[in-house]
Amino acid sequence: TCDLAAVPQPTSTLTPPAADLSLVLIALGKGTQNYTCASATGVPSAIGAVAQLFNASCAVAEGNLGSVTEDASAIGAHFFVDNTTPDFDIIGLGNTELKKAESMAAPQATDVPWLRLEAQQQGTTSPVKQIYRLNTVGGVAPASCEGQGEVVTVDYEAQYWVY
């Protein structure tokens, strides 16, 4: 394990974590942002995401994010209970259902927004209070549903900072 106490969160406009919260994990999420298309002439509508989570705490703390290897063991999963309720099931921490509290545009328009998520009591068995989705790559829906089919999946990666 690595000491995360001095690891600075990436600069953003999101409200920082409260002073009484400690960073317990930085997870790398790799998966898909999922969208649905009601018609070929419509625009994709978000229906959540699915991702495997990998422990990136030491890699981020030491500035070696490239050291998270392809054969790394997953430490958990991120999925949605319904279209608006993200869930994180992390080995050693438990299950956390959250709600979106805040959003900001990612630095690149091709990447999904950065988020601050707040834990909800219902469905949560972990001590986790907040999760930030930061340093996103990909995941943005196509501009239209034309030629897409009913369900659209777009690959993405993100860092999840767990407090």
TrEMBL record:
PANTHER family: MALATE DEHYDROGENASE (AFU_ORTHOLOGUE AFUA_2G13800). This is Malate dehydrogenase. It comes from Lophiotrema nucula.
